[in-house]
Amino acid sequence: MTILKITKTLLIAFCVLNFNFFSIVNNSEANEKVTVVATTGMIADAVYNVGGDMVELKVLMGAGVDPHAYRQTRTDIIAMANADLVLWNGLYLEAQMEEFLLELGLDNNVVAVAEKIPGNLLIGSEDYEGRYDPHLWMNPNLWSRVVLNVRDALINVKPSAADEFRANANNYLDKVSELVRYANKVLSSVPAENRILLTSHDAFNYFGNAYGFEVIGIQGISTESEAGLQRISILVDMLIERNVKAVFIETSVSDRNIRALVEGAQAAGHEVIIGGELFSDAMGEPNTYKGTYIGMIDSNATSISLALGGNAPKKGMLNNL
Predict the structure, then answer these.
(1) What tens digit of pLDDT does each residue of 91-130 get?
(2) At what angle do helices 41-51 and 140-157 cross, to 10 degrees?
(3) Dist. CA 94–CA 62, nearest whole Å
(4) Most exposed: 56, 138, 194, 275, by fewest CB within 10 Å?
């Protein structure tokens, strides 16, 4: 064999070995999961549905946790610092964590998914000047935009899985569209004079805009605000004057103020009931239907419709309640 042939053979072998090596590296990268930390269950649900098996997900705030008051733990800090991607709502929802998350974002991939929504679609905050109401998930059509922001954040971290992320997002948004149709149907059946939604705090303004309800919270947009006796007295008078028959408690907020309101109305001779338990700032228990975004909104829409004189199936959109 000539020197030329030997050199050519060695070169081919070298190229084959290098091709196989880089193929192994690339396959390893392709199969590697994206580690994601999400602050709230609603964001985590979007990550789970869009990312599927391609993400390793940690959610900081579980069922019944109030995001307005939540502070990061030592374990949270370590998880976020080591994650490929940190997703938070923003718009001052995670008020006690905001400073930390902004600082973390200087050197890490941190995205406030709700802050990417155009300002003309947002509702102003009465509690904080220059800020917006953060409870976007109460309007599924608006929340669909947040899902797309989650999709884009995942694609940015793992471009090789862009097609899968897009397909998963489309499938998930089809389900959200079905939810929109159901909510429109059952909530439009509530008589116009009954469309007063009184809850513990102002988490339902986007809901009210979407479905034509007047929304009244005992507390403001943030649960950090306090309701005094005068506020309770004013609301008792309103319940009587407008003949409101049902009010609602929230899973992530103390029911103390709502029960005081009910007792005050009853003492004045007006019968009002607690129409149900609504999911406001947190979803239901993990691994349950109400522990999903679809289940959360389905439960809210169904409970509100039934309590305020509308027509809705007692077991909800998918017969899962």
Answers:
(1) 999 999 999 999 999 999 999 999 999 999 999 987 778 8
(2) 60
(3) 14
(4) 56
Phi, then psi, of 88 in degrees rounded to 5: -135, 160
Taking only the tens place, the pLDDT of each residue in 57-69 is 999 999 999 999 9
The CA-CA-CA angle for residues 91, 92, 97, to 5°, reads 130
Give the separation between CA 30 and CA 122, rounded to whole angstroms. Answer: 38
In this structure, whether the domain defined by 184-307 belongs to CATH 3.40.50.1980 is answered with yes
What region, left, alpha or beta, does residue 250 occupy, with left being phi > 0 and alpha being psi -120 to 50 degrees?
Answer: beta
Phi, psi of 183 (to 5 degrees): -60, -40
- Would you call 198 helix, strand, or coil by DSSP? strand
Structure tokens at 101: 């998350």
Summarize the confidence of residues 9-28 as an average pLDDT.
38
The CATH number assigned to the domain with range 31-117+125-183 reads 3.40.50.1980
